[in-house]
Amino acid sequence: MQSNQVTDLQYLLNSNPSNFPSHFGLANNHMVTNSIYQFQIPQQVQEFNPKSTSFSSNSTSDEAEEQISIINERKQRRMISNRESARRSRMRKQKHLDELWSQVVWLRNENHQLIDKLNHVSESHDRVVQENAQLKEETLELRQMISGMQI
What we know:
It contains two helices and three strands. It is mainly alpha-helical and about 150 residues long. A three-stranded antiparallel β-sheet has the order 1-3-2. The chain is rod-shaped, with a radius of gyration of 50 Å.
């Protein structure tokens, strides 16, 4: 789009081109096509780069240094804040882990107590089943004795 001397730029305008100053290139070099005006931009304007322009005052350099200083302070504060946040996160994680281990110990103790209780009930059940079997045997013997006496 860039030529050696001048580049064309099309721009949509609603007003009369004669109202613009002559350095816009409209006074002599405009073409009207459905309200679109074609500007010719000199190469010096095309090569304008606001970053490359230098100002001779020290105030801009001081302002730049101040902005850099502010940015560095913000970075430093953010870094400290992030470290503190990470430390709090590690502490929460450690607390949670400690609570989980405490729960594991409690559940293991509870499990051992329940197993002991189950073993005790199971032993009692076995004794009752054995006693029941003995009583049935005695009942059978007594019935046989009674039936033997009646005969």
